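[Meeting: bench + compute handoff]

Bench side (C.D.) handed over the final construct sequence. Compute side (W.E.) agreed to return the predicted structure before the next meeting so the bench team could plan truncations. Sequence as handed over:
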Amino acid sequence: MTDDRLDAEWLRCWCEQADAALARLMASFQARFGFEPGSNEVVLASEESHQATDALVELTPIPSDLTTMYWVIAEISLPDVENGYFVHPASLVADHFREYGAVQIGGEEPALVFASDGGGHLFALAGSGRIWRSTTASWLGQFDLAAAGLQEFFEGLSRPISGQP
C-alpha cells in the first residue's frame, strides 16, 4: 500500500495546468497536423458526477484515490494527445464493472478499470494505489505496472499535453 494518497488540491492545480497546456496545444493543432482537433478537455466534477461516484462506491469498494479523483474530475477526453487518453466517468466505470467485473492482476487486490487510451489499452487502479496498463485491448490479458499511483499517472499525462516526450 502506498503512503502517498492523492491530494484533491494537488489535483485541482493539475487540472488548471492541464487546461492551460491544452489551450496552447489546441491553438497550434491545425497548423501542425493539418486537421481540426476533436474535443480535448478535462471535465470538472459536478453534482451529477458526484452522484455517479456515490453509486459506484455503493456498487463496489473502490480505492480512496479514485474517489478523490472523481470528486475533482468527472472525466477526461484527450483524443488528440498522442494516440488518445480517456479517464472514464464514474457512471461508465460502474457499467463496465457490472459487465466485466474487476481486473485480476497477480499479487494485487482486484483492480478497477478507470481509463483507456486510443489503442484500447485499459488502465486499472488496484487497492494498493498502483496503476496497471493492459498489454492488449482486453480485460482478460496481462497488465503491466504503469504508475505508482494516480499522481504519477496524471504527471505522466502532463508531458504529452505540454508537448514533452
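W.E. noted at the follow-up: The longest helix spans residues 8-27. C.D. will use this when planning the next construct.
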